[in-house]
Amino acid sequence: MHCADEFVDEAPDFLGECPLFRENLERIVAETEPVRRVAEHWSAIEDRLTTIEEAARRVGARGGGVLIW
Question: What is the pTM assigned to this prediction?
Answer without folding.
Answer: 0.64
